[in-house]
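Please check this one:

***
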Amino acid sequence: MRKWEAEEAKGTVVIVHGAAEHHGRYKWLIEMFRLSGFHVVAGDLPGQGTTTRRRRGHIDSFDEYIEAVESWVNEAKKFYLPIFLLGHSLGGLVVIRTLQEKRLPVRGAILSSPCLGLVQYPTKSLDLLSRILNYVHPKKRFPSGLSVELATRNEEVREMDKNDSLYVTKVSVRWYRELVKAIQIAHEKIADLPDLPLLVMQAGDDKIVDKTAVKAWFDQLSLSEKVYKEWPKLYHEIFNEPEREQVFLYAQTFLTLQLQRGELVESSDQSI
């Protein structure tokens, strides 16, 4: 886990990365937030990045992700500023499940193409095999099927990823079964999501996450403030796409609005 500090910061953003990747792929986004007056806290999820070599692509339980994010939020609390969560893809699912299970002091959340369903699932025979292996050989790994070509149209990012030794290309049977279970629970326990401002930004041409599942989940939310923004033609990694500056500006505007509303509430409380 690392921290990046901004001058005259007005808030803290905790970034939760997606599957196969690591927080090092978010240098551009981290710097944009920092220059906009936000501290940033980010780290590598268990089984990814620099957290391990032997267990890369494997977790025993999705709870490992939840505990990691909770620890990052606890670190963000030390800044004594409003905290926002930002999760991409798997990280978006992790944010959802964390908020459903923990009561964290966060002002709002941003989900980027959250993994609430997949465009392509394994065949029925492979799915059955994964259920069996989950009990007898849970650490058995297989190709994830994810590729940088499916993730972004940004050629510069594609080239960097092809030479990234930390990029996870194989995942374990247990990892997959835990992912599927977490997606199911995220839908089933939708009422357990706390009532906080939520921005969901979804890639319009997502080749990894099923955008219809994301929209269906969003439509069922009973929140006081929720915003859904679909970005036409953009691939899965909206913060890496050629249009990423527009995407960032939208996210920044959402955060700024929440801070302004918080100031109004505080000033009205003081006047009573």
Q: What stands out?
A: The chain has a mean pLDDT of 95.
